[in-house]
Amino acid sequence: MTFVITSGCCNDTSCIPVCPVQCIRPRPGDPDFSTTEQLYIDPATCIDCGACMDECPVSAIHTEWDLPEHLDDYLGINAAYFETNPISESSPPDPIRRRLPADRGRLSVAIVGSGPAGCYAAAELSEIEGVSVSVFERLPTPFGLVRTGVAPDHGNTKLIAKRFGSVLNRPNVRCFFNVEVGVHVSLPELLEHHHAVVWSGGASNDRRLGIPGEDLPGCVSARELVAWYNGHPDFGERRFNLDGPTAVVIGNGNVAFDVARILAQPAASHQSTDMAEHAIEALSRSTISDVIVTGRRGPEFAAYTTGELSGLHHTENVALVARPEEVASVSASTDRRGLILADAAARHRAEGERSITLRYDLRPESINGDGAVESVSFRRPDDTIETIEAPLVVRAIGYRGMPVEGLPFNERSGTLQHLAGSVCDPETDESVVGVYCTGWIKRGANGMIGTNKVDSAETVDSILHDFGAGRLPNPAHDGEQLEKLIRTRQPDLVDKEGWTRIDQTERSLGRKSGRPRQKLVHVQDLVAASHPRDT
Ligand code: FAD
Ligand code: NAP
What we know:
Helix content: 25-40%
Strand content: 15-25%
Number of strands: 24
Bound molecules: flavin-adenine dinucleotide, NADP nicotinamide-adenine-dinucleotide phosphate
Number of helices: 19
Number of domains: 3
């Protein structure tokens, strides 16, 4: 008997240190760790103890005999990894025990952004004796894209919020939610109250296609659509043209697949998720029946993961369709991707049937329409143009970080300039004293939730190194003074207790309709729910 890691693995690596026989790969430091789609368990080495399953924050690990039917190929997927990557080193990774230097006193760190990167940084730092952490979040709710990005039908993935919540609840972590750094408090002010500031604000913009017609109404970014269906307060009032029968998604990554699944499924399937009410209501009136996902290259170059392709294949009430000639380079293979694409290529869509159609080698050329999107044109490899009629075109070609006032920014990659997480001037490599970064603003908009763990660990090591070397001056003021200052500027500050009340309110609203939570979308409603109830 063996345990099996399945789709939904967030590469967080919590399972690795608890495995007594070290049968999980790849591990941080392994050559393929930064590019792996997921982690794998070697069935030949697993001793069936279950420690990894207990530790997994997103419930992605199952016993072999308890694999849900739609995940049964993961037994083979796990085993296949070790055919080409046999285990040669089975000693456990050295546990990292970080300490402050005895002669330097306490260390205080402000973290800007409470997404995965900020939460992992808070986790690493708050474990160290003598460190205090203040987390700043511009929304009244924490966890970044775990709440506002991860698809509502990926409920297990959202379970990671529980792990992050327990970090934020540690006694040496303070939370300042509904506080935007740059609006309610400035970066220099944070530095006056802390030894260091970690910027983990994520990527709040998106890449552009740079083709004619991109700004026509009806051509939208996946970022906006995703934030809308996930109840991000900034997008509650957005409206999208859901008049079908066709919607086109440009891009071939996991976000493109999320959007395609959400648009193609009947609205009833969203009723049991935490999707925002306004989105369920709008989707129930949608007449979209076919979502065409287009890649500019062939399927062998697709950015989506095998797990997400498999998820699309298993989407209830939605047929997955492809064109045999466009997937030939992959469909001949007997691996999981090949089998799925071969199956999709053999599938014929009945008129009006709900479907997701995978198309390849279509390079976007122009978005067309008179005052609003009517169609989108693509250039094919033989230089011919193909035009697909659709009133909704979603570009899912990647998110992009935005500059932060006063910090060096790389326009090309959309990231802060840094060395191992220490923000620095690119000309001189000289660091901006006390300022660090992690997550999507550090390495670009790529990687799973767990990818940010290793990233944040690197940044924390840089902070500790600089603190130990005496490079971080003691702050002029303490945290109490900062809280007073912020409360004068943002009376609607939401603290840990306030967030707990919001969380309880949303869960209790959700319970009434059999959902994990019913999200409050407007900031004023969230703030109202954060207040103690009159007794
Ligand atoms: P974010 O999660 O974006 O967090 C940044 C936070 O900073 C936000 O809360 C923001 O409000 C806050 N902030 C920004 N500016 C300020 C400021 N000035 N002051 C205060 N706060 C500020 N990975 C998976 O493993 N599984 C999935 O299913 C999955 N689904 C995804 C779906 C989508 C649509 C996307 C886009 C990504 C998905 N990912 C998934 C990837 C994962 O979400 C990212 O790796 C991760 O969220 C990046 O973390 P981050 O902390 O850098 O950024
Ligand atoms: P991504 O993985 O980088 O994919 C972007 C896609 O857009 C690629 O297919 C790329 O094609 C295409 N593209 C870029 N520029 C284009 C252009 N000008 N014209 C046409 N196509 C273009 O980005 P993402 O999908 O936004 O995902 C971001 C990260 O979040 C990824 O690491 C992803 O795995 C993660 N995520 C994970 C999950 C999950 O685990 N379930 C869900 C969502 C997101 P080329 O390859 O040709 O450049």
